[in-house]
Amino acid sequence: MTLTELFVVVPAGGSGTRLWPLSRASNPKFLHALTGTDRSLLQATFDRLTPLAPPERLLVVTGTAHAAGVARQLPDLPDSNILVEPFARDSCAAIALAAAVIERRSPGAVMASFAADHLITDTDEFARTVERAVAGAREGYLMTIGITPTRPETGYGYLRLSAQAERGVIQPVLEFKEKPSLEVASRYVSSGSYLWNASMFVWRTDLFLAELAARRPDVAGPIAAIAAAWDTDEQEDVLAELWPTVPKVAVEYAVMEPAAEEGKVATVPGDFGWSDIGDFETVVRLLGTDVGQGGRSFSPATRSRAVVVDGEDVIVVPNSGRLVATLGVRDLIVVDTDDAVLVCDRDRAQDIKRLTEILREHGEADYL
Amino acid sequence: MTLTELFVVVPAGGSGTRLWPLSRASNPKFLHALTGTDRSLLQATFDRLTPLAPPERLLVVTGTAHAAGVARQLPDLPDSNILVEPFARDSCAAIALAAAVIERRSPGAVMASFAADHLITDTDEFARTVERAVAGAREGYLMTIGITPTRPETGYGYLRLSAQAERGVIQPVLEFKEKPSLEVASRYVSSGSYLWNASMFVWRTDLFLAELAARRPDVAGPIAAIAAAWDTDEQEDVLAELWPTVPKVAVEYAVMEPAAEEGKVATVPGDFGWSDIGDFETVVRLLGTDVGQGGRSFSPATRSRAVVVDGEDVIVVPNSGRLVATLGVRDLIVVDTDDAVLVCDRDRAQDIKRLTEILREHGEADYL
Fold first, then answer.
1. Which residues form a coiled coil (chains A, B) (predicted)?
2. Does B344 contact chain A (CB < 8 Å)?
3. CATH 3.90.550.10: which residues of chain A?
4. Which of A87, A104, A176, B325 is the most exposed place for a label (fewest CB within 10 A)?
5. pLDDT tens across B158-198, in order?
6. Is B364 on the interface with A (CB under 8 A)?
7. B2 pLDDT above the threshold of 70
């Protein structure tokens, strides 16, 4: 089996609010070097995927604010493979647009979709897992690559299988589960028959578009018309007319959950050192180094320093060239950027999104 | 009585380590606008003193690193009134040098000496108190202006009087007391016969120099030779030869304490809203405004913003133009400057000096 006909789609959206002030609406996390190298998350994603599909068959779907950033960071990506949404309409619209454009360019192709802001340490195993998922897609399944859970995480959705997950083995997905409570998550993980949903999808574009058309004609209709005009001189007019009519809905909710109920969804359990770079705890746990007394630090630009004196469980993310020093503090996250500084209790890290809303109310939207 | 013959000396030294990273060796606190206006502490001191002595009779003693800063901040001060020490030799050397230069320029003058980094709210009462101290100096006393204590402060030395302090009345000083314990300080304050020593001195320069010569010829000798060469083409050679030989000693220890034992020191209790801008607590208590939920902030340059969400007793000193946001933290001091950020437990504020020593050990002396 080869991956010759595989297309890869990378939805690159979301501002990464829980990483504020590092991640901004104008400079979202996927453009940052949160990888332990000087490559951005998007570039690392590109590097990981181009062995599976050359740049000619790799498409990035992004927003108007980030089209230039994507283009500059990925010079090998053809212009026509950067699909720019006029404004965000959630994941179903982004993925359906890519599927429809691919289907138009290469009918009956297989496409795989991976987020722009995940880290994967074992790229060989990742590639093998994708190959298996492609095999499942050729058999007609809407495939998802589920992640073998390593902890009872409450921040992700889960996939329920009919049996114990087996690495590398195609298995039916019975159900998509929303983010669970800690108790429920613990039960999921100990059962061995649940996987994390990392929104990694592999399918034949014609089958996906047919499922979409059957279930959500309100999405499929305008997307089909937009795709028909794509790469023509009518693209902009059609986008302007129809894009605002596309409903905002997640692809899981619109297609995958109902399809799973009908036995059309399968998964390949993946175990390749996957991480969602969603918050500072994760960033510093994965990429940081111990600094001083009781501190751990990660500087994306590797140009800033942290000094922690008499600290305990202090996380420092210096990213402005400045020195960040802490004295006698504990359980803090300190993030330093060129125009804003955050000092946050570690237990409140999930509320950073709320803080950004308060800043907006205070007229500080320039900092978001 | 007039102050026609009064000379005023402002020793402008010390880097204000407890205000790091706001105050630096290269940019010490007296050059900062820690006054609630755009005037620096030094400029506010100048403004307060020029009604007592015109710039021609006002001398600033400072170090090589700050001569330019002093000159730029005080354009009305004659060049020849900026006495630049080759390196710091403690307060006795600085004050004796000024006294000797004044005595050479105007024999038998009265001089008053005030620190460059104190805040005084009632300048009229301050001026009246100085006038009374000048009267005491003319009577032959080595005068000090003691501050009526408002709390059992353990960070200052105290003056012991023979009786209850009376505002505006010249009274003998029996003894200079070192910084006391809290218990002792409480006893001092409740007794009513102790004043804070703010190192404000007023005396006839000839009498001070005679006391110095009698008690510390090792200081008086080289200072006399240096002063004799001052304003001549030999000044630099004599400074180079003799300044390194001047012992490092505080003027209280060298002159005032032994003179007090002989009944030669008196004080005028002062009550004019005096503050020592020694730490962030004081800065923000005196000059700050409440921000957000549980925060208090002071921005010396009034160009930076702080947003405190779900905070408690949070002190923010933003001074780089950036936004500083805190979320869910308490009892913290956050200081933001152009090249360094400090996050410090409030109970550890007195250890900031230690932190700067650690930074030096870590090779971060550039930030000091």
1. none
2. yes
3. 6-276
4. A87
5. 999 999 999 889 999 999 999 999 999 999 999 999 999 99
6. yes
7. no
Please name the member of A322, A345, A367 whose beta carbon is closest to the beta carbon of B339. A322
Instruction: Say what angle helices B90-105 and B217-229 make with each other, to 10 degrees.
Output: 40
Place of tokens 């889960």: A158
* CB of B335 closer than 8 Å to CB of B351: no
- The distance of A309 to chain B (nearest Cα, Å) reads 7
d(CA B157, CA A12): 64
**CA distances in angstroms from A46 to A51, A71, A269, listed in the order given:** 9, 12, 22
Contact A348 B310 (CB under 8 A): yes
ipTM of the complex: 0.78
Q: Give the residue from chain A lying closest to B326, CA to CA.
A: A343
Residue listed under structure tokens 């500084």: A341
* Contact between chains at B343 and A351 (C-beta distance less than 8 A): no
Cα–Cα dist B122/A84, whole Å: 65
Average pLDDT of span A342-350: 93
Q: Tell me how far apart the alpha carbons of residues B29 and A101 are, in angstroms, rounded to a whole number.
A: 63
State the Cα angle at B75 between B72 and B77, rounded to 5°: 115
Q: A320-333: b or e for each residue (b if 16 or more CB lie within 10 Å)?
A: bebbbbbbbbebbb
Predicted confidence band at B255 (pLDDT cuts at 50, 70, 90)?
Answer: very high
Distances (CA, A) of B84 to A95, A257, B60, B94, B104: 71, 79, 8, 9, 17
> Which chain B residues have a beta carbon less than 8 Å from that of A342?
325-327
CB count within 10 Å of CB A258 equals 17
The three-point CA angle A86-A90-A96 to 5° equals 80
B172: preceding bond cis by omega (within 30 degrees): no
- What ranges make up the beta strands (E) of B70-209? 82-85, 110-113, 118-120, 142-147, 158-161, 171-177, 194-204
Whether residue B352 and residue A327 make contact (CB cut-off 8 A), yes or no, is: yes
- B343's enclosing H/E stretch is strand B340-345
Cβ of B332 under 8 Å from any chain A Cβ? yes
Whether the predicted pLDDT of A353 surpasses 50: yes
A260 touches chain B (CB under 8 A): no
User: pLDDT, tens digit, for every residue of B78-127?
Assistant: 999 999 999 889 999 999 999 999 999 999 999 999 999 999 999 999 99
For residue A233, with 0-12 CB atoms within 10 Å meaning exposed, 13-18 middle and 19 or more buried, which class applies?
A: exposed
Taking the Cβ of residue B361 and every Cβ of chain A, the question of whether any pair is shorter than 8 Å is answered with no
Q: Which CATH superfamily is domain B6-276 in?
A: Spore Coat Polysaccharide Biosynthesis Protein SpsA; Chain A (3.90.550.10)
- Integer angstrom CA distances of residue B65 from B15, B31, B76: 11, 12, 20
Decide if A305 touches B, using CB distance below 8 A: yes
Q: Which of A323, A334, A345 sits opposite B339 (nearest CB)?
A: A323
Any B CB within 8 A of A124 CB:
no
Nearest beta carbon to residue A345 from set B324, B329, B344: B329
Nearest Cα of chain A lies from the Cα of B328 at a distance, in angstroms, of 5
Exposure of B263 by Cβ count < 10 A (0-12 exposed, 13-18 middle, 19+ buried)? Answer: exposed
Q: How many CB atoms lie within 10 A of CB B320?
A: 23
